[in-house]
Each structure stands twice: as C-alpha cells, then as structure tokens.
Amino acid sequence: MFKGFQLSTFSKLEKIRVTRGAVAIALLDPDLKNDKGLINMLQLVNESDFDAIFIGGSLISDNEFESRLEEVVKNTELPVIIFPGSSNQLSQHADAVLFLSLISGRNPQYLIGEHVKSAPIIRNMKLEAIPTAYILLDGGVRSSVEVMSNTSPIPMNKHDIIMAHALAGEYLGNKFVFLEAGSGAENHAASEVVSILSEQLQIPIIVGGGVNTPKSVKSLVKSGAGYIVTGTKIEQNPSLDELLEFTNAVHQI
Ligand code: 1GP
Fold first, then answer.
1. Quick check: is 4 in a domain?
2. 96, 140, 161, 213 — which has fewest CB within 10 A?
3. Does the residue 69 lie in any domain?
4. From ligand 1's centre to the CA of 134, what distance in Å?
5. Which of 55, 183, 207 has the most ligand 1 atoms within 8 A of CB, as the residue to mutate?
6. What is the rounded CA–CA span in Å between residue 222 and residue 226?
C-alpha cells in the first residue's frame, strides 16, 4: 500500500507524540468563507511549530475542497491529514484521512454509510485511512457536528458513558479516540475526562473543540491528551508569539 519503506503517516504522528510529549495539530477549514485567508493562515501555521495539519469542515459551500487542499499541500512541509465532514472530502494529494466513526451517535450514516461510499475511493487514491473513534461531547453550545450529523453529544459529566464509548472505540480497532466538543465550544473536553480515559485506554487521545489557551493545553496534555487540535484560534488572526506559546504548551518534552 505505501511506497517503499516509508513510515505511515500514523507512525510519523506517533513518533512525534513520543518524542515531543504531545502533537500540535492545526485545523484548517477549506470552506468558501476562508478562501482568501487560507494561505495566510497556513503561513502562520508553518511558522508556529505545529506538527501536522488537519483539513476539513462540517460543510463546504462550494466545490473547491480539492483545489484548496492542493494549495495547502504545495505550501507546507507538514503532513496534511483530511478530517472529513463527509465522504465528499477526499483527495489523493493528502497524506492520510481520518476514517471517522461518530460512535457517540446512533446515526447509521456516520457509523457505516459514509464509510461504504468512501472506501473504494480511498482505495483508488491509495490514501492512508486512519480509523478513528469520534466522540462528540457537550461543549456548552450546539455544534455544527451535532446539527450536520443529526446526533446528540454526550454530557460532559457522564464519565461512565464516555468511558464505555471510548473503550468500544478501542475494541472496534480504532487507532485514535477523538474527543470533540465542537468547533468554537464554550468548554473543551474536561481534563478530568481525559485523565480517566487515558488511564484505561491503550490508544492515543485526540482533543479538539474550544481548546484555545496554553493553560487549557497544559492541563489536557498533563491529563493524557496525546494530540491537541485547534482551529478557531488560527482563524482569529493571532500573533505569531501567541501561537508559539500555544504549541510550546503542547510540547511538554
Ligand atoms: C473542531 O476540534 C476542532 O472540529 C477544532 O475546534 O475550532 O474550537 O479549535 P476549534
């Protein structure tokens, strides 16, 4: 599947996690609304010590997903991983795709439907698929994921239910558990939840949604988060110093 003896993108990410303590991921939403700012955001990401880029969105309002992704790939050295809102968001120019199962929900479209539609295309594109258990948590505001997927988030205080989902995700063979509070969430996944899960899980935890301060990052990484995803912060035109402070907090080794 992979050319020569190249490491898979998953292995590269895991190597970074082990050597740097945690992995800093910049999320770029290649939607029409970001069309003009995308390359500027990317330059900022390139200079801010991020380790990888996730690219994708809940809704892409035009048919330029692939051309924007190609533009991103051309202008960065970082691994580019698709974080798809649907099976339409695929490109052979990416390094990998998160093969997401929205296991907090009970909507068959996001448990198997989109997977069946995209699997032959992923195969044709020779794209690396990284199976990921995607768990939507209640971040205090109604998220785009909730609206678009027609699923309900799990309340943040239902630790036993979150744990049961995460373990099911691991036993189903996923390589990551992704704790999502939704883009722009008021409350990111609680450090307490990350801590309880990381004690029981063998697979690494990705945390995203509403993570925008170095203080939050430090507490999440200390609790066992292996990957921190941030998107909205990058869209808010932050200074280089601000972003560097953020990625420094991720890299605790
Ligand atoms: C959303 O996890 C991501 O899917 C990022 O969220 O935009 O709040 O950083 P933010």
1. no
2. 161
3. yes
4. 13
5. 183
6. 9
- Tell me the whole-structure pTM to 2 decimals: 0.97
- φ, ψ of residue 188 in degrees (nearest 5): -75, 175
Residue 86 DSSP SS3: coil
Q: Which residues contact 250 (CB under 8 A, 6 or more apart)?
A: 20, 21, 22, 23, 24, 217, 221, 228
Q: Provide block-wise average pLDDT over 10 residues at a time, the chain (253 residues).
A: 77 98 97 92 98 95 95 98 96 98 98 98 98 98 97 98 98 98 98 98 98 98 98 96 98 89
Query: Is residue 1 in a domain?
Result: no
Are the beta carbons of 126 and 92 closer than 8 angstroms? yes
The answer to whether 220 and 227 are in contact (CB under 8 A) is no
State the residue range of the domain holding 223.
9-250
Written as six digits, the tokens of 175 are 């390589």
133 forms beta bridges with 101, 177
Atom 1 of ligand 1: nearest residue by CA position: 183
Residue 2 lies in a domain: no
- CATH code (residue 110): 3.20.20.390
